[in-house]
UniProtKB/TrEMBL annotation:
Keywords: Heme, Iron, Metal-binding, Signal. Residues 34-113 form the Cytochrome c domain. This is Alcohol dehydrogenase. The keyword Heme applies. It comes from Pelistega indica. It comes from the Bacteria. Residues 1-22 form the signal peptide. One of its GO terms (molecular function) is electron transfer activity. It holds the Pfam family Cytochrome_CBB3. PANTHER family: BLL4482 PROTEIN-RELATED, CYTOCHROME C DOMAIN-CONTAINING PROTEIN. Gene3D superfamilies: Cytochrome c-like domain. InterPro entries: Cyt_c-like_dom (IPR009056), Cyt_c-like_dom_sf (IPR036909), Cytochrome_c-type_DH (IPR051459).
Length: 162
């Protein structure tokens, strides 16, 4: 089998499986190692280890930014991104917290500690965020295949014969 065909079927399989993955709407963890359900509990048991109980952060062995009165939290997207993917010294939580736990924590932090943002994030928003990343991954693969990035036998040859 030609490499281009092989890659094409690989891409198709990926697309089909991503479709059924999306359909089944289980873009979430099956369970979290943390037993907490409220944003308050998650913040004080998980995040406060670094950001401190008053969310004012700390500087010492490392720099842990304050989440209290933090103007960067104005957009929930930023917080979703950092909590899910981590950033520098902060570990990613996408494989540690469920969609609902992430949403609850974001809502708690954004409406406490001197933050007064009233727009809420839902578990569905977080699920979409997981999907966006998955989607971007597939897009890169498909794009690379169609642009012949992986292909030694150019994809143009096989298509120009039709
Ligand atoms: C192991 C320590 C640690 C834990 C636990 C932790 N963080 Fe962080 N967090 C950090 C560090 C360090 C940074 C700064 C990263 C950087 O330099 O960009 C940070 C940055 C952030 C930022 C971005 C702040 C800004 O001003 O840019 C947010 C939001 C955040 N953390 C939220 C959380 C939430 C919510 C939790 C709990 C689910 C959490 N963090 C748990 C260490 C931690």
């Amino acid at each position: 089998m030609k490499l281009s065909k092989l890659l094409f079927s690989f891409a198709t399989t990926l697309l089909l499986s991503s479709q059924s993955f999306a359909d089944s709407a289980v873009i979430d963890l099956s369970s979290s190692p943390y037993p907490y359900t409220t944003g308050k509990d998650i913040f004080h048991h998980v995040c406060a280890a670094c950001h401190m109980q008053d969310a004012k952060g700390a500087t010492g062995a490392g720099h842990f930014p304050a989440l209290a009165g933090n103007h960067k939290l104005v957009t929930p997207e930023y917080m979703k991104f950092v909590v899910m993917n981590g950033q520098k010294g902060m570990p990613p939580f996408r494989d540690q917290l469920t969609n609902s736990q992430i949403a609850e924590t974001i809502n708690y932090v954004r409406s406490n500690f001197g933050n007064h943002y009233t727009d809420k994030v839902t578990a569905e928003d977080v699920a979409k965020f997981r999907l966006i990343f998955l989607g971007a991954f597939y897009e890169i693969i498909i794009y690379s295949i169609y642009n012949g990035c992986f292909s030694t036998t150019s994809i143009y040859h096989s298509s120009s014969r039709d």
